[in-house]
Amino acid sequence: MLNFGTKILIIARDKRIQMLLKSNLEMEGCIVIQAYDGKSSLLKARQFDYSLVVLDAVIPYENGIALCSKIKKDNDVPVIMITDNEHQMLKSFQAGADDCVLKPFSFTEMILRIQVIIRRYTVRRSDDSKLRNKEFIKLSHLIIERSAHRILADQKPVHFSLKEYELLLYMACNPNVVLTKEHLFHVVWKQEQPNNYRTIDTHIKRIRDKLSNASTVSRNMIQTIWGIGYILRDPM
Questions:
Q1: Antiparallel, parallel or unpaired: β 179-180 and 229-232
Q2: What is the DSSP string of 112-162?
Q3: Which domains does the chain have, with CATH numbers?
């Protein structure tokens, strides 16, 4: 079940999808804001704090996938993309989408996906708040001492450059979550549009190499999600 008053933005060109999804969500007690094109959707996305955005990959006056990237950069809000094919789905994940559904889709399934993602974000935000106040971040094979910028892999100290440390710290604060290269570049390097992602790949390789000298297990915690980005899996 969704909490009463949960605010959701729907951006879709298909008015039938809009109305059916709006009707289903309002029966769950949600407040639904609607937009049909790129001109109005970004403004509406910035007007309120939403619990989730449902976004069509193809909308008038804007590329929906590019709009997803803009929304994710502006706000810490989950986005579910409605896609026409697998190519759009892959591009959507690369743009930072949290989930994708292919047309035609079940509205019952869509509501369940929305419930799961909102619940996951609620838990993650609570965990992030706790992590920001923690001096030590402890995973199964990694310990990060934040004030000292010190990282231990299976109790052995590993020395990293500042960017390597910041990248590994961010991944450790978000374990078991797929992080796109675009998102990592935005939050760690504080830049909007990188020329390429070789910088991230190079830093990940260096982190893995340094971890492998202390602990092969900790090195293998960082896994590549081909075509999308990376995930730090904590087997704990």
A1: antiparallel
A2: HHHHHHHHHHHHHHHHHHHHHT-SEEE-SSEEEETTTTEEEETTEEE---H
A3: 7-128 (3.40.50.2300), 134-232 (1.10.10.10)
Give pLDDT tens digits for 61-110: 889 999 998 888 878 889 999 999 999 999 998 888 989 999 999 999 99
24: exposed, middle or buried (Cβ count in 10 Å: 0-12, 13-18, 19+)? middle
Read off the tokens for 19.
């109305």
* Beta-carbon contacts of residue 154 (< 8 Å; ≥ 6 apart): 141, 214, 215, 217, 218
Contact predicate 81/17, CB 8 Å: no
Task: Phi first, then psi: give them for residue 66, nearest 5 degrees.
Answer: -65, -35
Tokens at 7, concatenated:
């605010």
Contact status, residue 80 vs residue 50, Cβ threshold 8 Å: no
Ramachandran region, residue 220 (left: φ > 0; alpha: ψ -120 to 50; beta: rest): alpha
Which residue in the block uniquely carries the two structure tokens 């971890």?
211
Mark 204-214 as b/e (b = at least 16 C-beta within 10 Å): beebeebbeeb
Q: Which residues of 66-77 are buried (b: 16+ CB within 10 A; e: fewer)?
A: ebbbbbbeeeeb
Do 171 and 131 form a contact (C-beta atoms < 8 A)?
A: no
How far is residue 200's CA from residue 185's CA, in Å, rounded to a whole number?
7
Describe the strand order of the beta sheet including 150-153 as a list of residue ranges: 136-138, 142-145, 150-153, 156-158
The whole-angstrom separation of Cα 150 and Cα 141 is 14
How does pLDDT run across 51-66, given as a tens digit for each residue? 999 999 999 888 999 9
